[in-house]
Amino acid sequence: MNSSNPVIAAADALSAAAASGTPCAPVKDGIAALGIDGAYAVQSELTRRAIAGARTLVGRKIGLTSKAVQTQLGVDQPDYGMLFADMEIADHEIIPLARFLQPRVEAEIAFVLDRDLDDAEITLGKLIPAIAFALPAIEIVDSRIADWKISILDTIADNASSGAYVLGGSPAKIGDLDLRLCGMSMELKGEPVSVGCGAACLGNPLNAALWLARRMAALGSPLKAGDVVLSGALGPMIPVTPGASYTARINGLGTVTAHFGEKA
After folding, report:
1. How confident is the model at residue 77 (pLDDT cuts 50, 70, 90)?
2. Which of 103, 144, 173, 209 has the largest count of CB atoms under 10 Å?
């Protein structure tokens, strides 16, 4: 580990945790002096390494879309992380638990873009027609930080605590949906374990997508046609039980199921 450069040191620690399957201590102390910009610098370094290792960037995820969680972590805006092609899992596919360290699941609305979004001052009126369709999604959230003892700096550095994601197969035009009021229920063995609606995601999932589109364009890494955007949780995050199947039902979008294998 390169201790002379705090960004590289944090990236090394998170990479080692992912490779070994053993969570590491929080990285916040090493990058505290650099603040949130430093945490994103760690994320950027991990992204650089991923792309150098032939992983393909296919979109972004938005986190911290709950006002309550923002307050808990002492921030006033969401965060973002990268989505890579090898993070996408098919609906109902058996998901090996061995690929995760401390997985949790949350139900979201995913957007797939129809055009590039390179305007840092894009309006909602221009964003909506740029979305090809929406899909139901389950994000598998994971943390390389031991016991999920994360600060805002830890989660941003750790690619917004990303793991993988499952997309449903029922695309819908967003003009046919009330994204703010669409209800969500995630079930385990037919019983609800997480419930919510679109309003839980920054008041409307489109608000989250607009924030992301502006942020990415301003940073010179705009969202592209075909990108997937996970817009943020519609309800509470649930720890994964080995062998369990979680089905999320989102009004107007149908269902999506994440089925986990037994622990090896």
Report:
1. confident
2. 209
